[in-house]
Structure formats: structure tokens, C-alpha cells
Write a structure and sequence with these properties.
Length: 178
């Protein structure tokens, strides 16, 4: 399937010209790769957001300067039900998303954090076993860090819900991390 859209104002076509810090670019690219995976892979993601497969592949690659357009990210996040790229963009600015709907219990969220950190620890130990973390291992670790960050966000949201239920005020929607 050929690319069906051309670059517009909502796409970044040159990583060098974007002005983003490399850590911000890497975080958004890793989140995009995770979102594409959650959507069912390149073909499925391309179909959902009406872009060509090669374009979607560029968005998810650290080897290209292209970033996912906001409208494509929103379509894929709606499709998967996960605000992966939105969460990454908020994190770049030291912000955390807080859902407005029902929040899982503290125990459920804490178990998810424990599992995510355990998975991260296991992957990090495996990656460091030979004393060198290769680019593939680095990208896998970045995905696991993103998963752990999401679990920590959920834990923080469950604490906020508990605090609010006890009659205290707690920041809603977006708050500064710290």
C-alpha cells in the first residue's frame, strides 16, 4: 500500500530540525512503537489511521526523524484504548495523566507496578549480562520503562482516588510529576 498522505504541518519530517531533545524524541518514538504493536502491527495501525505502512514504520523507528502526527496518535489511541503517545508527550514535560473514569484499587495498581518493575529488572539483568547493552536491548528496555511508568501512573491515580474519597483534595487530570 503506498503512502496515502504527504507530510503536513502536523508531522515532523526532519529529526534534526525539530528542536526536540533526543530523550523526548526517543520517548515519543518508543511510545509510538508500543502503540503500533498494541494496534496489531504495522498493517493494522496503517489501516486505522489511513497512512501507508512504510510511513507508520518510520514513526516507530529511531533511525528516522519522523514523529507520529497527533491525529494519527489519537486515532490509534482510541482504537487501542491506551493513551501511550499522549502519556509520553506529557512525561516529556514532567506531567502525569490522571484518568477521569474509574480508577483501579491501590492493591491492583501496586501489583501491576511490582510486575512491571520485576519485568524491567529481569530484562535489564539479561541485557547487562555481557557487559554491553546493544541498541535492540536498549529499545526493549525503553519499552519496559514505558510500561513501568504507565503502571506507576496508575498507582498514583489510585492513591489520588483514595485521598479524594477520604475527603482530601488531589490534583485532577494533569499534575506535575515530582
Amino acid at each position: 500500500m503506498p503512502d496515502t498522505k504527504t507530510p503536513t504541518d502536523d508531522t515532523m519530517t526532519s529529526g534534526e530540525d525539530s528542536g526536540l531533545r533526543p530523550t523526548a524524541r526517543n520517548r515519543i518514538t518508543a511510545a509510538t512503537r508500543e502503540l503500533v504493536k498494541m494496534a496489531g502491527g504495522l498493517e493494522a495501525a496503517a489501516s486505522v489511521c489511513s497512512y501507508g505502512k512504510s510511513t507508520v514504520q518510520r514513526w516507530a523507528s529511531h533511525d528516522h526523524g519522523d514523529l507520529i502526527p497527533i491525529c494519527a496518535a489519537m486515532l490509534l489511541e482510541e482504537f487501542t484504548g491506551q493513551p501511550v503517545v499522549t502519556r509520553a508527550m506529557a512525561a516529556v514535560h514532567d506531567l502525569t495523566l490522571c484518568p477521569t473514569g474509574e480508577v483501579p484499587s491501590f492493591a491492583t495498581s501496586f501489583a501491576a507496578v511490582s510486575g512491571a518493575v520485576s519485568d524491567l529488572t529481569a530484562k535489564a539483568a539479561h541485557a547487562m549480562a555481557d557487559g554491553v547493552i546493544c541498541p535492540t536491548e536498549s529499545r526493549a528496555l525503553a519499552r519496559q520503562v514505558n510500561a513501568a511508568r504507565g503502571a506507576l501512573d496508575d498507582l498514583e491515580n489510585s492513591l489520588a482516588a483514595t485521598h479524594t474519597q477520604a475527603g482530601g483534595a488531589f490534583p485532577a487530570v494533569v499534575k506535575e510529576a515530582g
